[in-house]
Structure formats: structure tokens, C-alpha cells
Design brief:
Hypothetical protein af1432; Diverse_Catalytic_Enzymes; single chain; 10 helices; nucleotide binding; globular; hydrolase; about 190 residues; binds fe (iii) ion; binds 2'-deoxyguanosine-5'-diphosphate
């Protein structure tokens, strides 16, 4: 699928600030892909579609996850975690996007997971640092993204875990496993 077609499909589904966020993720993902040697076209399509299911009603997301046989344990956790796996399933079924690397980078864009691929890291980080984001610590993550992809993703995941701990929110195991895999695999 080309960029224009993908943007047209997503533009019908998500509007306003959420669409602006998507365009920010697209630009950022392309820059990161070029800088760190990921495939530009895969990064572009994954970024365009990453939040495709973000605005679906919770009941619909639940049905999609069941139908798509996505990880059952997700249903025990916050519905915020459902839109990535749901989008991966819809893209395969409705738009015949079969590239598992693209689908996995969308599937895991909210939680991360252990031993993330290059494309998964690019999409996770682009989602976190696109210019419209203003979380505490985002500027440090942007600076790290100029120098070292793994350290930047590690920072984004650490910040997210701290944020969830502050809120006393449950942390999905993939998020911990992502964190641990960076502890084990980087010198930081
Ligand atoms: O969809 P976006 O808003 O662009 O960003 P996202 O897909 O990264 O979703 C961010 C939200 O997901 C944010 O509120 C934190 C939450 N989140 C990320 N990991 C976990 C989590 N929430 C819970 N409960 N558990 C997690 O492990
Ligand atoms: Fe998202
Ligand atoms: Fe997003």
C-alpha cells in the first residue's frame, strides 16, 4: 500500500489532534528509520496505521481481540493496551497487510516486548517522542534518540513504567519484559 492510500484510510477513521499525532509519528519514524537503518517504507506504513483502532469502542476492541486470537491476557489489563493488537488484526483482515514486521510494530507499539526488532523500536520511540508529545522526560528521550536508539527506547519504557507506578496502574508483562531486555542487553 502506498502512503497516499494509507493516509486516506486513516484520515477517515481518526481526526483532529489524534490525526496530527499520527502525522508526527510518521515524520519521526521516517527520520529514525533513516538514521538507524530500518526500512523506510515499512516504518512509514506502520506509523500511519499505528493508532488506527485507537478510537474504537471498548466493546468492539474486545470482540476484535477475541476474533483475532490476540493474547487473551490483554483483556485483564487496561483497554488502552488493546488498540495496537486490534489494529494489527484489522489491517491484515481488511486491508491485506501481511507484512508481520509491520504488524508486530503496530501490535507492540504501546507495550513494547522483550527483544524488540529494529522496526518495533523505531515505531515505539516515534510514538513517544513525536513533536506533539509533552510528557515529563520527553526532551531527554529526544536527545538520546539523536545518539543511541536502544538507550532512547529504554528511557521511554522506563518513563512509562514510572508513570504507571505513580498512578498505581497495572503493568502489562510485555512492558516489564521490554524493560528487562534493555537492562540485560545494553551497557547503560
Ligand atoms: O496511543 P497513544 O496515546 O499514541 O500512545 P500509546 O499507544 O503508547 O498509549 C499510551 C498509554 O498506554 C499511556 O496512557 C500509558 C499506557 N500504557 C503503556 N504501557 C502500559 C500502559 N498502561 C498499562 N495499564 N499498562 C502498561 O503496561
Ligand atoms: Fe497508540
Ligand atoms: Fe500513537
Amino acid at each position: 500500500m502506498d502512503r497516499e492510500k494509507a493516509i486516506e484510510i486513516v484520515g477517515k477513521k481518526i481526526k483532529g489532534p489524534r490525526f496530527q499525532h499520527t502525522l508526527g509519528v510518521v515524520d519521526t519514524a521516517i527520520k529514525l528509520a533513516e538514521k538507524y537503518g530500518a526500512n523506510r517504507e515499512q516504518a512509514e506504513i506502520a506509523a500511519i496505521f499505528h493508532d488506527y483502532a485507537k478510537l474504537l469502542p471498548i466493546s468492539e476492541l474486545k470482540n476484535i481481540l477475541k476474533e483475532g486470537q490476540e493474547d487473551d491476557s490483554l483483556l485483564l489489563y487496561h483497554p488502552e493496551l488493546w488498540h495496537g493488537p486490534a489494529a494489527a488484526y484489522i489491517l491484515k483482515k481488511e486491508f491485506s497487510i501481511e507484512d508481520e514486521e509491520i504488524l508486530n510494530s503496530i501490535r507492540f507499539h504501546t507495550t513494547g516486548r522483550s527483544n524488540m526488532s529494529l522496526l518495533e523500536k523505531v515505531i515505539y520511540l516515534a510514538d513517544y517522542i513525536e513533536p506533539g508529545r509533552s510528557f515529563p522526560g520527553v526532551n531527554e528521550t529526544r536527545e538520546l534518540a539523536e545518539k543511541d536508539l536502544d538507550q532512547a527506547v529504554f528511557k521511554a519504557i522506563s518513563n512509562t513504567i514510572s508513570f504507571l507506578v505513580e498512578k498505581k496502574a497495572a503493568i502489562y508483562p510485555d512492558t516489564f519484559e521490554a524493560y528487562n531486555s534493555f537492562v540485560f542487553n545494553t551497557d547503560s
